Amino acid sequence: MTTPRISRSGRAGQYVALLCYLVFLAFPFLWLISTAFKPPRELGSLHPTWIPDDPTLDNFRQAFDEQPLLRAAGNSLIVALSAALIAVVIATPMAYVMARNRNKLSAAATGWVVVSQAFPFVLVIIPLFLILKNLHLINTLSGLIMVYVVWSLPFALWMLGGYVRAVPRELEEAASVDGAGRLRTLVSVTAPLLAPGIVATALFAFITAWNEFFFALVLLKTPQTQTLPVVLTHFLGAEGVADLGPLAAAAFLATIPSLVIFAIIQKRITGGMLTGAVKS
């Protein structure tokens, strides 16, 4: 008789914990929105409020007047789209080979893919900078695209590998009986079934490249090539004093694309992770 009561109390505790976690995640974004619409008088108030008493769009106008946000957003869009497309094109056949040829070598490669994600950026930035310098790719969007492709490939391989393992081998065997080669089978049979995983992986790579800051800060030197996350740092003064209103407005605009895209694909991303985790 006590089991239902324990179950209900446990479920209530889970909901409370989930609500607290959501509040914890949403607080910075909600405060960012509130700050973006506050006039300077309210930004300097000793008693800040959630809802601006006198909301204004002056922070957005000032942000566009002070910094080349549109050009930076264009650079970010070029880099993120290119990196996502190239990463998916490379990762799809590689994930197929690793998933279909299960041996010690593929297992070691999969383990390396997972371990490589734990490497800190600082560990690789110096050799990476020297390599790009020798290739004359410093301060170029193409060099940054190359870096993002390499950095996103491990996750793309792991995620797409789960989708490949979910495709029944019998379909490929049937295509082989009909005379289709391995490449034809991959293009005509397997790839269409992988479409949801390919889209989710590409969009995840896009979001990662769109939000990335450290590599862009080190590799891009001129305002003409800088991406949006780097340009946001220009709202900080020489002594580290932030121009808070325009900075919040620009950061809010820069966050919208990632939030919209992630909201659209979050179910597919979760499905890809779960598939990759449970398939053998």
Mind explaining what this structure looks like?
It is a single chain. This protein has 280 residues and is mostly helical. The protein has 13 helices and no strands. The longest helix is centred in the N-terminal third of the chain and has 35 residues, at 2-36. The chain is globular and about 75 Å long. The chain starts with a helix and ends with a helix. The model is unreliable at 1-5 and 272-280 (pLDDT under 50).
Estimated structural class? mainly alpha
Fraction of helical residues: over 70%
Shape: globular
Count of discrete alpha- or pi-helical segments spanning 4 or more residues: 13
How do the SSEs run, as a string of H and E?
HHHHHHHHHHHHH
Extract low-pLDDT stretches.
Answer: 1-5, 272-280
The mean pLDDT is: 81
Strand content: under 5%
Amino-to-carboxy terminus distance: 41 Å
Number of strands: 0
Major sheet: none
Rg value: 23 Å
Topology of this structure?
Elements: H1 2-36, H2 40-43, H3 58-66, H4 69-100, H5 104-116, H6 121-134, H7 141-166, H8 169-177, H9 182-193, H10 195-211, H11 214-219, H12 228-232, H13 244-278
Question: Features of this protein?
Answer:
mainly alpha, globular, disordered N terminus, 280 residues
Provide a concise account of the structure shown.
The protein is mostly helical.
